[in-house]
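Re: duplicated header lines in exported structure tokens

Our pipeline writes sequence and tokens for each protein into one text file. With two proteins the header for the second block appears twice in some exports. Here is an export where it did not happen, for reference. First protein block:
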Amino acid sequence: MNIDFIISEIEREPCVKTCKNLLKNNAIFTTPIDDFQQAMNLLDSEDEYVRIFVVMYISKAYDSLDLQKEMIHKQLVLLSNDWSKKFIRYGLIPSVEAILTKAGSELSTYLTNKLKDPDYPVLPRIYFEAYSRVIMKKNNYKEVTVFLDLIGDYLISNNLDTQQGLVSAINNIGKKNITLLQKYILDWIEIKNINTYYVIRKVFDLKFGELAGTEFRQTCKEKMNSYEEERIRLISEKFSSDESKVDVTYQEIIVSTMLHFINSPMLPFNWGANPYRGCLHACEYCYGRTSHEFLGHTKDEFERIIYVKINADKALEKEIMTPKWTSSRNKLINLGTVTDPYQQIEENYEITRKILETLYKYKNPVTITTKSDLVIRDIDILKKMGPLTNVVFSIPSLDQIFLDKIEKRAAPIAQRLKAIEQLKKAGITVGVLMIPIFPYINDGESELKYLIQTLADYKVDYVIPDILNLRGDSKYKVSQFIGQYYPELAEAYKKLYVRGNDSLYVDKAYQKKIFDYLMKDALKEYGLNDYSKMIKGKWS
């Protein structure tokens, strides 16, 4: 095998077509066994298309490599861990299909025994998608039913790759086995699982959905909707707050991605991840409500209709395993940019805990922003993460009466302070967001100093202050809040908020007065302005 020529051609034009053309060039090959040994060495290449070429070569030469087939089978399993979408789509799946066609039951049995191995998370996708094509060509009834039974074992998986493989496999089989698959789908619906329903609904969007007919699809959707509505009702009843006298609905959803980019020079991170969409705490100043409007909700539904991302950990894992992410210098993720990752529903789902376990597995740094003492539940993971994590509490005031007005269902201040105490005893870095400072309400020097002194007593590592701004829907909500509780300040706020588009920020004189006192006096006096203790991302 002329390795130098192969690599130079791929470097000159890196694409699948180049790989296919090279395979047609018999002049670059020598003997099957020598070529195979050289191909194995190329699997370590960092070039995606070099690896694609190797897989295509193995697929083409499989019949002439009798003594190497056991090694090929092992390599197929190892190669399934390459998370590059192009590699999976253009390299592995068609080639695995070709090898499965040639190899028969021996390889199929070997792969099915490896499917549940957590070290090979992409293998189920590749196997289900590739083998469904193989048995489609045979269309043997017994083989099809055995394969469908195997599919049933994986339908509750929340692994996105597995789900994609299942969708493709079911669609492939259903094109020639409509009646049989309809029976299976009705049985699968009785599993009563949201991941199963996600796969079924995706299948209905493909060719099989058309072949199955409108009436069958409608019957299935009604059954799935009925189960989901009952489940949501029970969850919502369990976690609705009696104190708020507001009905809260929790809706389970499956997501494809978790990370969102944050372009702010004022923040030490560029990436955010939210386990939930919407937040029970109902803070008057929260500008996250805008995210709900994208879903067609009103401003007040942000705290009443909350979406639960039940596969959040798997979606995040898929993103942080990509070569682009692992080679990035800034991998710091903030949990809780527009929701609280430890709001009450987390007790039931433990999604944030699963995310932390995933981040610890890949040694990925994370900062957690919360108003909840539930975070102490995860002290065991946070201790293991050590310098890879900070916990940052939001504490704008120690006045519980005031907090009850602006953060209706957040943890009481006493519980937050107790959580800080426990985290610090465990050796975990803890910061505090003294945000927002409401002008003329909680901005008095004596009140600010008392808060800072208290935080110092609890051995907080650093404090980040900021003044209330009126971004997003917070302008509307704060205006309502001031009108209800502090009507005498309404005119003063209009005069104070004069900067920026739509008057979102306080005037510079007021801002300078507050920050001069905090940064030059109070925070400095108690040593809470040492931001070197803060976990860094782009500032490092």
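Second protein block, exported in the same file:
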Amino acid sequence: MCAATLTIPSHFDADLAAIRRPHDPQVPPSYWDVLEPVLPKVSQPAQYVGGEHNMSVTPWASARTRWLLCYPDTYAIGQPNQGIQILYELLNERATSLAERAYAPWFDLEEEMRARGIPTFSLEHHYPLWAFDVFGVTLPHELGHTNLLNLLDLGGVPIRSDERNLDHPIVLAGGHAAFNPEPLAPFLDAVVMGDGEEAVLEIDDVLATAKTDRVEGRLTSRVELLERLSGVTGVYVPSFYEPRYAPDGRLRATVATHPGTLPRVPKRTVQDLEDFPYPQKQIVPMTETVHERFSVEIFRGCTRGCRFCQAGMITRPVRERRPETIQKLVTEGVKDTGFEEVGLLSLSSADHADIGDIARNLADTYEGTTTSLSLPSTRVDAFNVTLSNELARNGRRTGLTFAPEAGSERMRAVINKMVSEEDMLRTAEIAFANGWRNVKMYFMVGLPTERDEDVEAIAQLGIKVYEIAQKHGRGNKATVSVGGFVPKPHTPFQWAAQDTPEEIQRKLDLVLEIIKPYKGLRLRTNDPQEGVIEGLLARGDRRVAPVVERAWRLGATFDGWHESDTLPYWHRAIADSGLSLEELSHHERDEHEAFPWDHLDAGLDKQWLWDDWVDSIAEKPLDDCRWIPCYDCGVCPGLDIAHDTGYTNPETRGPTLPIINSGPAAGPLGGSPDLPTSAARLDGDA
């Protein structure tokens, strides 16, 4: 935490005379006066200005604790993130706390910032990162790791946690990629596992008390502060744990080494979304972003059991927001923001038990206006004529996106994505017959047990959908988007081998060859080499941390952006480390192999995950546990969920079933599953 009187780090001793300095020595300098003359020289300068509608402006001196919430990517990608918006609003509602936002500067501005001594700054007041008490970073995916290091360095904060003292911000991470934070362990002070809403408020209380205790001499070291933070349920302090390795170099375990530290850190779970009806004052962007809409999370979690899907596993169980709450949030939010699109967010929005009534009531509300509805994440088998008509009642029928994930029925049984080809073709027929112009389908190659005929089935299914599109109008379009599968922690496929980039490319070429004669059928693919980096970071242990640092020092940032060719840096960093990709990524793990995240409890029983992995190899599907008896995945014990959900209503779902849980999502520190944001970025879609 920052000292009572702020000092500017020595490497920011450029001409600071031009910086506007408040008279109060406890208020940091605003870098706006230095930044403003630079903005005409850079692309999209509006993203660095601030001043948006619903932006919170709290006087620095009136706050006891100060947070800088960060999405480590550009404003265009990070601004719509629901997690940032929720925690921003929660913290700023407190009379004693302040939260501002930061995003990664693009290359042109970073060059100017380093030349002029401008540190990573907040959007609200352009205060420097080094002045805040907490740097709270969401990690939605692994390809933002080098951006995190870059923001710390640019912000005047040592990148390694053991080089920081009480004057430095606490570097706090969360989000889906933080469920294996080990490749970033030397750089992070603490990690929030799971939902962020309750956890950040408790962390804020700890920090406020610590600041008082420091002034009065009861807190004298950063280790003491980290000890207090580790006492908050769901908070993991990496420096209090150490990996242990076998003689052959394999990880044996990651063990707690600090007194009083839990052997396994449990995830944090918000058990009733009704307690957190946020965001209520969504920030309206000043410039173009990937999603410009008023967004409401209609439920959290997923129990469909897709075996590749980390988000679906770590956010268990399903907790639905009540329809009347959704209606209220949307009505007030659209009136306040002026957005002309409403996004009903979740991992599979059409699975909400009352989605029909929700869509109908909202369509009634906005019929005859310019406001439209969207379900950014929709299962093929949940889409129907009624839902199609409600979503398009105001005349907007542009495009729909579905994710069959695999082309063949056999492969979909392996991954537990129980969507039939008949479902997909029926959905395409409904969509194009009802005036939709474009259907996009997401698939993966490189899945466990995959054969060439499974890969070829992707192209064949795409062709059938394209033919349906053309039947309903020559201007209709179909797009097949194919990426390489990356095994993720806390899923049944965490044991799977990852295909090499050469094998992924071979499979992509198979799809391309079949689709090639169909000129109107578009194919989109990702660079298979990018999957190498994602896979290494997703399942790596602490030995990967030097690779991350080395790649960053060589120049790697914005990994995954087509404008940033960082793969040579990563390959050099991996070669310099002496690590084997064959051992880390391209071999199948055995049943009792230790994982770097075994000491982090996502709620899922490891034996259950293994059994489901075995079932996948045997091509045995598993039903959604909302509609069948509990199959003991491990998430539910200890949770107490008493709120109503639509599927407890016998008139809408048949027999009443027990409500069984809650899992993680909202927060830069809990990773609200606004998945279309990151998916759009990785696909290059805006």
